[in-house]
Amino acid sequence: MGLKDDVARWLKDEEIDVDEVPVPAGAPVEWALNATVKAPLRVLLGVQKPKTKADRLVISMVVKVADQHKAALSSMAPKERAKLMSQLLVNVTSLCPSCIIVFQPQLDLPDTIVVSKVIYDENIGPSAIGESVRVLVNEYALIVSFFNAEVAHVDQGPGFSTVIHM
């Protein structure tokens, strides 16, 4: 049994659905898994074992910013938008200082926000995997709540939300 099987088992032990992801030839990863957390929130995570940095695992979560939220951000004054998104970055970084956080394509008007947690070989185990999953689920809740509370317009109606995307 290899590390991929161990990680899949540890995730399943936490009642997380796991699917193997086919890795295309030439991809910079040895293997990849999709992990779907069902509670308290439904969040899709990606788990990858990099080829070039074989001493670690990377668990990532991607939030797609809703078109309506992007439109609301675009309508703001540049300084207001930069201040708001900088506050989100501070909030996300405060929750997980060791996470890698990327606003794509740019900080003040993101299409997606990627949050990744790196686990190094000496720490890879069920507790580090479980803790990383919990941190990323919390990051998801923080990001979505921030957009829905700080960026949403009152006329958007029910069912409008920034959502997970992977």
From TrEMBL:
Pfam families: DUF2299
Matching InterPro entries: DUF2299
Protein name in the entry: Uncharacterized protein
CDD domains referenced in this protein's UniProt entry, alphabetically: T3SC_YbjN-like_2
Origin species: Acidilobus saccharovorans (strain DSM 16705 / JCM 18335 / VKM B-2471 / 345-15)
